Amino acid sequence: MNPSALRQFAADLSDHDPAVLAAADAALAETPRTTEAVGFYVDGRETDEENVFRCVASALMTHGHTTAAEDKYQHEIFEPWSELVTLPDELVAAFPEILGEDDPPEDDGDWEAYAERRQAETRAAYVPAVRALEAVFADAGTPLMTLELAGGDTLVFLALPEAVAQRWSGVHLATTYRGHPMGLRPPDWDTFWHHLGYATGLVDGDPPEEATPPVAWRSPAS
After folding, report:
1. Residue 151 CB contacts under 8 Å (≥ 6 apart), including other chains
2. What is the pLDDT of residues 102-111, one digit of tens each?
3. Which of 213, 207, 195, 212 is nearest to 119 (CA)?
4. Residue 145 forms beta bridges with which residues?
5. Is 16 exposed, middle or buried, given 0-12, 13-18 or 19+ CB atoms closer than 10 A?
């Protein structure tokens, strides 16, 4: 881990929020190793750097710099997004059961057939819907990004100034004990799909292959 890079990362993503910087400085000075100190569940196998990174992520969440939702409440993230941008028609049409802008499709009396039909419709609409959402955030000058925490049940998004998003997207800041990179990345719609399915049952199985392009991770110095 590059401590100076992580501190600058915390500064840029929080617009130099003193509370976030204090949390980052404390974590870098003495690695947090408990669930309470890190802000995410700790089972003792974590590397020091993943604990530090998650501690910074927790501080960003606590002090209002993210939109995040636990997996079983993933559908609730649409509300804070709607406070930042106008949700695109494609997204509203894909999830009428959640967004409530239109009456949900009618149940034709055969629940299993209805559920199968709605899952197929949502699958077909998913990628255009999330691409439209990305475009709305990008047009507002605040691209939507994900904090890659490499596990856990909370998916963390941020709407960031374009320059900040470009500066940190794909920068490999920490590594988990399993060898997974951690940092800022474009939206993780694959995990969002799985969490949304767990929360609502509206989607099932693997997400569409084109939902989340792979991340080309790079070092802070590159």
Report:
1. 176, 180
2. 666 676 677 7
3. 207
4. 158
5. exposed
